[in-house]
């Protein structure tokens, strides 16, 4: 199988794992992947998210180049790297806002974009994708709250429509979450009446209301006024420390990345060029590109 | 030349009622076509888009009057039954103005921010739920002003039916003119009748737009004529 040979050549995250002794998120081994290739069933080692040889191109431009990585439940992984390096693409692939050109993604042991039919992997139906996707929540850079719904409704609509909760139950859960994000008193406001920071907190509550296993955070403070950033980061820190939700963040807030991450992955040109524990990554990176990047942003 | 008798005035008023009916029925059919075709033109299956696009091009490119004749005179040759002129007119006007309206729907739906659909996907809404709960409520207020234009166009377009002998305002007017030989008063009056009907429609659409915008937490649209502030003490008496 051609995929195997590619793998042995291109496996920076895997090699990195072995040498650094890192066993947490972001690790994978070539052997397991081979097993998966031959049986046609996703082999899980307890990991929640798994990318196998994922390639994504936009026209001529290869944004992700045969990427492999794994994330274990409850881990917090931060993706860093220069713009255009493919960080956001990973989150968008996981959220199924994009489809991979090659490779497979599994979430909780289920293929995200594929289904098995007669022992063969075929593109998944819309229904299958939706089912697997329920495990994933996302917070966007631009909040993307629904302007036609009041704050409470923004948080309750999906639990009611998608999870089938009763209005009362959804309301109760939403009020708790809005209390948690410090907006318990703004249930009846429209998003347009809130500040950017408040909108982003509502968006966080909205994502959490679906009780996702994985929370994707896509540069969630980049669109905020500087004085509002800290409040949102504090909230996320709080959620990271008090819940068991798995987090994948793309962020330029290195202080935050250092505080909450179990693993930092450095991307460049569609590949993971280095990864490891934040203490190591931020104080003593090995790769030249990582050093350059960090000295520019820190 | 003779005076316009009360009976003839009544003929004109009856014509107003027919015009109103024609407008309402055609608008209802037109709205259904506009939403159906407009949404189909943004469908993810190309064949649906193709069929809807073809409909749009054909009906936009044909004359409503000729279509009306065609439905009334040609269709019976194939089917063996004939629609009454009123319904032939409603069909022709509804299908034609629905085609125009589909462009309004398509444009407004496409103008909803991409992030809104993405948020809908991230929350695992089905495509139908995304449309119903997220996209259409946001697109709807944007559709109202162009719909208002089309509605007024449609109202005036109903005058075409007088050619087929449907007794609308324009038909009544030509009867009255033939009976009395007075063109000036008759046509001036029906000009005003259309104007008043159009003004009523526009007023109604304004109210609808304000409500729709308030319903999604948006600022109300500017008034054409700023309302006199209620708090201000009237100087020299209130006019209304």
TrEMBL record, chain B:
It comes from the Bacteria. This is Ectoine/hydroxyectoine ABC transporter permease subunit EhuC. Belongs to the binding-protein-dependent transport system permease family. InterPro entries: AA_ABC_transptr_permease_3TM, ArtM/GltK/GlnP/TcyL/YhdX-like, Ectoine_EhuC, MetI-like, MetI-like_sf. Keywords: Amino-acid transport, Cell membrane, Membrane, Transmembrane, Transmembrane helix, Transport. Gene3D superfamilies: MetI-like (1.10.3720.10). PANTHER family: L-CYSTINE TRANSPORT SYSTEM PERMEASE PROTEIN TCYL, MEMBRANE COMPONENT OF AMINO ACID ABC TRANSPORTER. It holds the Pfam family BPD_transp_1. It is found in: Cell membrane. The keyword Transmembrane applies. The lineage of its organism: Bacteria, Bacillati, Actinomycetota, Actinomycetes, Kitasatosporales. Residues 16-202 form the ABC transmembrane type-1 domain. Signal peptide: none annotated. The chain crosses the membrane at residues 16-40, 52-73, 79-100, 150-172, 184-201. It is a multi-pass membrane protein. Its main location: membrane. Residues 218-240 are annotated as: Disordered.
């Amino acid at each position: 199988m051609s995929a195997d040979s590619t793998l042995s050549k291109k496996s920076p995250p895997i090699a990195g794992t072995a040498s650094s002794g890192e066993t947490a998120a972001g690790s994978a081994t070539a052997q397991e992947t081979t097993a998966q290739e031959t049986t046609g069933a996703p082999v899980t080692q307890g990991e929640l998210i798994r990318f196998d040889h994922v390639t994504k191109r936009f026209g001529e431009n290869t944004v992700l180049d045969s990427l492999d990585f794994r994330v274990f439940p409850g881990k917090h992984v931060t993706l860093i790297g220069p713009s255009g390096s493919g960080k956001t693409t990973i989150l968008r692939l996981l959220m199924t806002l994009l489809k991979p050109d090659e490779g497979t993604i599994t979430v909780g042991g289920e293929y995200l974009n594929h289904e098995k039919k007669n022992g063969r992997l075929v593109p998944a139906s819309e229904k299958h994708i939706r089912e697997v996707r329920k495990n994933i929540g996302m917070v966007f850079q631009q909040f993307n709250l629904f302007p036609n719904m009041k704050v409470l409704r923004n948080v309750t609509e999906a639990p009611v429509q998608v999870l089938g909760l009763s209005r009362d139950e959804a309301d109760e859960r939403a009020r708790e979450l809005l209390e948690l994000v410090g907006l318990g008193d703004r249930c009846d406001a429209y998003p347009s009446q809130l500040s950017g920071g408040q909108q982003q907190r509502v968006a966080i509550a909205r994502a959490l209301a679906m009780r996702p296993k994985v929370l994707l955070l896509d540069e969630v403070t980049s669109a905020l006024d500087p004085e509002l950033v800290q409040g949102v980061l504090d909230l996320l820190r709080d959620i990271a420390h008090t819940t068991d939700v798995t987090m994948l963040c793309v962020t330029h807030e290195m202080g935050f990345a250092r505080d909450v991450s179990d693993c930092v992955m450095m991307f460049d040109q569609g590949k993971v060029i280095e990864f490891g524990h934040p203490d190591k990554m931020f104080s003593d990176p090995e790769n030249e590109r990582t050093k350059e990047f960090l000295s520019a942003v820190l | 030349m003779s005076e316009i008798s009360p009976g003839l005035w009544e003929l004109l008023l009856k014509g107003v009622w027919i015009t109103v009916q024609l407008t309402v029925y055609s608008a209802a059919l037109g709205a259904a076509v506009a939403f159906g075709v407009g949404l189909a033109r943004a469908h993810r299956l190309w064949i649906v888009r193709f069929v809807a696009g073809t409909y749009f091009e054909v009906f936009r490119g044909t004359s409503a009057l000729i279509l009306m004749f065609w439905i009334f005179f040609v269709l019976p040759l194939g089917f063996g039954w004939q629609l009454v002129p009123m319904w032939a007119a409603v069909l022709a006007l509804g299908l034609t103005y629905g085609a125009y309206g589909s462009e309004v729907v398509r444009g407004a739906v496409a103008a909803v921010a991409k992030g809104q659909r993405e948020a809908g996907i991230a929350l695992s809404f089905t495509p139908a739920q995304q449309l119903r709960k997220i996209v259409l409520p946001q697109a709807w207020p944007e559709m109202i002003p162009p719909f208002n234009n089309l509605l007024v166009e449609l109202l005036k377009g109903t005058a075409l039916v007088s050619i087929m002998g449907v007794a609308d305002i324009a038909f009544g007017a030509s009867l009255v003119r033939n009976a009395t030989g007075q063109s000036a008063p008759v046509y001036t009056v029906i000009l005003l009748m259309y104007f008043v009907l159009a003004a009523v429609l526009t007023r109604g659409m304004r109210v609808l737009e304000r409500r729709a915008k308030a319903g999604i937490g948006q600022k109300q649209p500017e008034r054409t004529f700023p309302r006199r502030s209620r708090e201000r003490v009237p100087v020299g008496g209130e006019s209304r």
